[in-house]
Amino acid sequence: MRLSFGLLKQYKSSIPGFGLTMGYTIFYLSIIVIIPLIALFTEAFSMGWDKFISATTDGRVIESYKLTFYTSIIAALINTFFGVIVAWCLVRYEFYGKRIFDSIVDLPFALPTAVSGIALTTLYSYQGFFGQYLEPIGIKIVFTPIGITIALIFIGLPFVVRTVQPSLEELEIEQEEAALSLAASKWQTFYKVILPTIFPAILTGFALSFARALGEYGSVVFISGNMPFKTEISTLLIITKLEQYDYVGATAIAVVMLLISFIMLLLINILQRWSAKRRGMEAI
């Protein structure tokens, strides 16, 4: 007992300023996250339950939910697939201009979202670099859900690449060589050795890309056309209601988006824990 107390005391003393840093952490999170969320829920439910349901189940609002989540999930899935490929190339191969390509991945982080939206709209418009060839054959990008998805892919790809990349860098090549020496095929090596190791990072990248897409506004507002019941996303509808001084209606839509996002992220975190636990059991 004395030994345990001594170890505990030594452990606590090895972290200087724990009380101060913990107090600052709680204060910072309260000011930046917790209090704004409480204010959001309070404002949204101040209208009463019946009006809240009416405001969040209006036909125009429902269509914006569908479009937002549909395009966000598709963009996140595409980013996950190609993000893993990009991360793999950047980690496992040496080629001319690798540093340039590695820097280009972070470009959506640096560009203002409005600039991204204008650039994409210019490229895919009827007279744009790509649009002038696509629209004559019946493929319209601008002012369609396809354009929204492309914008969300553009801003979400770095989240997957930068999340998966460290996991690939830490992966020991000796494990792959051992699997290949035991007559495993390349596909079996990837499926049995590589994928289980990077799977939690892939899920995290998907979650970050999906969450980023849900709240995107600047890069989408230009290429979507903002047509109600067709290309109007939820964030745009929130801005529209704020411009109409309908603060309660805007917060009601925001609360629904927030709750659905929390549920999605919770499910992804549960899947991550299950994957990590399964890996631990297999290792034993």
The best one-word shape is globular
How confident overall, as mean pLDDT? Answer: 82
Number of DSSP strands?
0
Order of helices and strands: HHHHHHHHHHHHHH
Describe this structure in words.
The protein is an all-alpha fold and 284 residues long. The protein has one domain: MetI-like (MetI-like fold). Helices cover 80% and strands 0% of the residues. The chain is built from 14 helices and no strands. The chain has helices spanning 2-13, 18-44, 49-56, 59-92, 98-105, 107-110, 113-124, 131-134, 145-170, 173-181, 186-214, 218-224, 234-243, 247-283. α7 (113-124) crosses α9 and α7 packs parallel to α12. Mean pLDDT is 82; it is low at 1-11.
Task: Lay out the secondary structure.
Layout: H1 2-13, H2 18-44, H3 49-56, H4 59-92, H5 98-105, H6 107-110, H7 113-124, H8 131-134, H9 145-170, H10 173-181, H11 186-214, H12 218-224, H13 234-243, H14 247-283
